[in-house]
Amino acid sequence: MVSASKEMAVYCFDTLTGHFTGGVIPPAAFDDGEFPLFVTWKKAINGGEPRLRGCIGTLEPRPLITGFKDYALTSALRDRRFPPIQAKEMQYLECTVSLLTSFETAAHYLDWEIGKHGMILEFTDPDNYRRSATYLPEVAAQEGWTKIETVDSLVRKSGYVGPITESMRRRFHITRYQSSLYTMHYGDYVAYVKRTRGMAPLVGGRC
Questions:
Q1: pLDDT of amino acid 32
Q2: Phi-psi category of residue 27: left, alpha or beta, with phi > 0 → left and psi -120 to 50 → alpha
Q3: Within the chain, which residue ranges are assigned CATH 3.30.700.20?
Q4: Phi-psi region of 198 (alpha: psi -120 to 50; beta: other; left: phi over 0)
């Protein structure tokens, strides 16, 4: 079983660094395979709580090497919720890579565990419009949400703005899943590059 690893996070940092410098991206130091995957960027300044800067991935299996290369950039530069990450922000970033596993159909909308399961929510709204949204397993715990708060937040994430009723919740289709994840801070990435390549990255210095 493949697990998320330090080398995968390094590859995402390498990819974003290469985007800013125009340099060649070093070869991936992990075996390829196919998994649903996500790349999450967060930013923390002066020891503050890391704040989301981009999170995009795929629920369909993708080759790991091309998948992480694509989504490292997509999540950093093209998450519509945030402005694109700039080179001057690199020193404040942390990267989390997630491999999604163990997809199961939940018996009902509360048939999942906070901190263990991510969810794919699918439903048809009162206007007969099909909607869907997902949260990774760590989201509900990080936000301090209850199960109902998590589900209702997913409904809003899907774009539905009408009333959410208990009868509606009972009609939701929930697919739960688990993930293997690894988080790396930029400082750890710099230390890794110096140790393994004898050099420092070309971006991320103080402005």
A1: 93
A2: beta
A3: 6-101+179-197
A4: left
**What amino acid occupies position 174?**
I
How would you classify the pairing of strands 130-135 and 173-185?
Answer: unpaired
Q: What is the C-alpha to C-alpha distance for residues 1 and 84, in angstroms, rounded to an integer?
A: 34
CA distance 13 to 20: 11
Where in the chain are all domains bearing CATH 3.30.1490?
A: 102-177
At the topology level of CATH, where does 6-101+179-197 sit? Glycoprotein, Type 4 Pilin (3.30.700)
- In CATH, 102-177 is 3.30.1490: yes
Tell me the CA distances in angstroms from 9 to 31, 124, 168, 191, 192, one per residue in order: 13, 37, 39, 13, 11
For 185-207, write each residue's pLDDT tens digit: 999 999 999 999 888 777 754 32
For the chain, the residue count is 207
The DSSP code sequence of 129-163 is -EEEEEE-TTHHHHHT--HHHHHHHHHHHTT--S-
